Amino acid sequence: MTDTAPPVLRGADIESWLAAYLVEQMGVPEEMVGSETPFEDYGLDSVDGVVMAAALETEFAIEVDPAIFLRNPTLPEVFAELENEGIATIERA
Predict the structure, then answer these.
(1) Of 7, 30, 3, nearest in space to 83 by CA
(2) Alpha helices of the chain — where are they, by DSSP H?
(3) What is the pLDDT along the chain (93 residues), one digit of tens a residue?
(4) How far apart are the C-alpha atoms of 84 and 43, rounded to whole Å?
(5) Could you tell me which of 60, 7, 80, 58 has the C-alpha nearest to residue 68?
(6) What is the CA radius of gyration of the chain?
(7) Which of 29, 44, 46, 58 is a Cys-bridge partner for 39, taking CB atoms 3.0 to 4.6 Å apart?
């Protein structure tokens, strides 16, 4: 059995996707969306987190725990968990 490296994902791509998702799917005002804004400020609840995690999985072909947005209050912390769990390597440039 061989281990494969986790996919490398661009943080900017995830951030752009998340901003569009929050604006289009959750009705968050565009000017309110930012990488350092806590998810709770968007009114995200557990059901929203499950749906958003599933959408993230589909968009980026990675496996995401539905509670990731509840455990990690901001996008940089989500990135850290994805890396720490070996789910993805986040390219931050």
Answers:
(1) 7
(2) 11-26, 46-60, 68-71, 75-84
(3) 556 889 999 999 999 999 999 999 999 999 999 989 999 999 988 899 999 999 999 999 999 998 999 899 999 999 999 999 999 999 987
(4) 26
(5) 80
(6) 13
(7) 44
